[in-house]
Amino acid sequence: MKLRASEIVTLDGVMEASNQWFFQFMDPEYEKDIKSALRETDAFLFGRKTYLEMTPWAERTGEMADRFNTLPKYVVSTTLSEVTWNNSHIISENIVEEVAKLKAQPGGYLLINGSADLVRLLTQHDLIDEYYLSVAPLVLGKGKRLFQEGDQARLRPIGSKVYTSGIVRLGFETVKQGKSV
Questions:
Q1: Is the dihedral of CA 63, 8, 168, 163 positive or negative?
Q2: What pLDDT is stored for residue 177 in this prediction?
Q3: Per-residue DSSP letters for 139-156?
Q4: 119, 133, 136, 116: which is closest to 10 by C-alpha?
Q5: Beta-carbon count within 10 A of 133 CB
Q6: Looking at residues 57-69, what average pLDDT do you find?
Q7: 8, 47, 136 from 23: Cα distances, Å
Q8: 115-153: per-residue pLDDT in tens?
Q9: DSSP 3-state helix, strand, coil percentages of the chain (rounded to 5)?
């Protein structure tokens, strides 16, 4: 499987509390593209906080909810002792090695949403294959950012799309050691 990080950020890179500022920019075309990306997904990877924020999907129905509720969910956490959302599994140690094992399985995409600390860890170990950033036309000036000072990754653009609501969706693939840009 390929590991795809799909993140919602502001123009200044803030991703914190996107549920409080992002939905004003949703439009039907963007939602259609997100559903299409979910159809390519074979499993989800979450940090603890994002997983807990996502668990209300267990009570929802519809195409997106069906994907969230049926696909395997891997939760990276050293504090959770159990997970009750259907088909969820905890990764509590050897995170980098366990994620590498998941990637070695056949399939389409292992999708990570949110989970900034986990994204940074996996970026440091060159495990993320693709980054999709949905950039909202908004500057917040403060809040947790996807990347912090010192984070590094070499990327190649693989697509972009501008939505009528102002969202710009940018796709990048990781340039692995030995590949040229």
A1: positive
A2: 66
A3: --S-S-BSS-TT----EE
A4: 136
A5: 18
A6: 93
A7: 11, 22, 10
A8: 999 999 999 999 999 999 999 999 999 999 998 888 888
A9: 30, 30, 40
